Task: structure prediction
Amino acid sequence: GLKIQPLDDDDRMAALIFKARQRGLEISPQVGRFLLTHTERDLASLWNALDKLDLASLSARRKLTVPFLKQVLGIGHG
Result:
């Protein structure tokens, strides 16, 4: 069978930023790192988080900042 190389964080980060750009979202490296640290590390979960952030930033008309991510993803409360 075909072995899929596990992605390292650089690859994930690049994929995340690329995917975000396709949606018209700008993700700073800081925000990217935050996402990689706080979501499950598989791409499906990252895309999920991206979906949430996309919708949230559209409705809130806010830029993607770490505090905003915490709010949207419910991270860091307790």
